[in-house]
Amino acid sequence: MTVNSKSWLALYASKVPETTLTGLQLDSRKVGPGQVFLALPGVNQHGKAFIAQALAQGAALVLTNEGHYDDERVVVLPELQQLLPALAAGFYNKPARQLQMAAVTGTNGKSSTSFFISQLASLLGHKASVVGTLGYGEIGALTPLPNTTPHYVDLQRILAGFVSDGVAVTAMEVSSHALVQQRVAGMLFDVAVFTNLTRDHLDYHGSMAEYGAAKAQLFTPQFSRAAVINLSDEFGRKLAERSELPLWVYGRMEDCRGFSRYLGYSGVNAGPDGYQLTLHSPQGDYRVSLPLLGEFNIQNVLAAVSAMLVLGYALADVLSVLNQLSTVPGRMELFHFPQRFSAVIDYAHTPDALQLALQALRAHCPGRLWCVFGCGGDRDRGKRPIMGQLAELTADHVIITADNPRSEDVLTICNDIASGMSPDAAYQIEPDRKAAIKLALSSAQAGDVVLIAGKGHETVQIIGTEQRQYDERAYLRQLVTEMSV
Fold first, then answer.
1. Comparing 23-32, 148-157, 207-216, which segment has the lowest mean pLDDT?
2. N or C: which end of the chain has fewer CB within 10 A?
3. Is 175 annotated as a binding residue?
């Protein structure tokens, strides 16, 4: 049968009592008894092709936006896609309203900033969770996600689970893809955080202008009640200038002047395991210690602290636990080797992120700085020579290797990277990633630092269409043990 939007709520209540419905499901393969299957248009196929399968698996109700069906369990609602965000939120009892919610977007730093918000809330005695690249849930017990930002239907289910578990604060990454694809439709965040904008995802967005416009959507009254923006980023400054939202800013102190609500930093001193710096705020100046590597992590921490202030936490309380923050898995994660050199695993896979990671480690490196990295196949090819050039300029020795080559030839990708480097550059090509890492570590000497960039927290290497198990963090721990013998 086909219904219009006005009769939908009455139909929903009378034909299929709400008590019989156990959840909303977008994937017919995951439908179970009592669930509602949402048969929507997909990238390659419409979900209506799987209605029979969903019913056979026990679906109590199917909602779709087109077609005609005699089965009363299948309801056709032409406006389904417009109504679904509110329907999904209502089905799960509007969980976002029962949580303090921070949304974090930007090219780099989303995962770290989200983790820092969650850690700070936890350290202050509040149960907290994250949703993002590394998964969803409490830190240390994350459930993997296929996308950085899940579809709003899945998101409402996840948030409802958080509410049931007593979570008070949730920090989630919101990608540019998610904003364009409306995966956070119907959400209203307490605070939206912007980290930075640098070259990435141009194979999807087409231009930096479109990429920036996608990010900017989050900083509107439609999605957020307040904004936290990095003024040490060029796009961030433009975003702040046109902000329609109550605004908090952060960054280097010289960039924050002229704003009434700010967190700035200066007087940075780098040590072997972190930083000391002066934090400036309207309440006064503070000398703080951060057990983290990379100046960008200083900015990520300030973003997180700013978000906590917007959520109503006292600055003095937040600053009292800053020195207890820990590294996000695969983000500037430090490994000490017995030969008195160190290795750092980082997810950096963009030109800017790679350059920032190398520049950051230079401050912690009394010896030579090594860089092991590659570029993904079937992705933005234009960034490959750029990353090669930046690696040459900021590292003392570079080893080019594989990083999710997908359908492309690994050696071709490596040569694309090398094409951006000068003929006399200090680099080697070793297509086997484990061999490349071992080569760098066996060559390193006391005082050296080896950056291993690109994979970070990931646990697979994509070669062709095959996802091969590959946990770089576990491999480094294994090498630390082997090289201690």
1. 207-216
2. C
3. yes
Consult the annotation and say whether 181 binds a ligand: yes
> What type of residue is 361?
L
What angle in degrees, to the nearest 10, is found between the helix axes of 234-241 and 208-216? 50
Q: Is the pLDDT of residue 206 over 60?
A: yes
- The whole-angstrom separation of Cα 373 and Cα 169 is 35
Residue 454 assigned to a binding site: yes
CATH code, residues 5-91: 3.40.1390.10
Q: What is the pTM of this model?
A: 0.82
Q: Is 65 annotated as a binding residue?
A: no
Is residue 15's pLDDT more than 60?
no
Binding site annotation covers 108?
yes
- The residues that bridge with 287 in the sheet, in sequence order, are 278
57 is in an annotated binding site: no
Question: Domain 95-324 belongs to what topology?
Answer: UDP-N-acetylmuramoyl-L-alanine:D-glutamate ligase (3.40.1190)
Categorize the per-residue pLDDT at 180 as very low, low, confident or very high, splitting at 50, 70 and 90. Answer: confident
**Superfamily of the domain at 333-482:** Mur ligase, C-terminal domain (3.90.190.20)
Tell me how far apart the alpha carbons of residues 289 and 319 are, in angstroms, rounded to a whole number: 10
Residue 302 annotated as binding site: no
Coil, strand, or helix at residue 389?
helix
Question: 95 among the known binding-site residues?
Answer: no
109 labeled binding residue = yes
Domain residue limits, the chain: 5-91, 95-324, 333-482
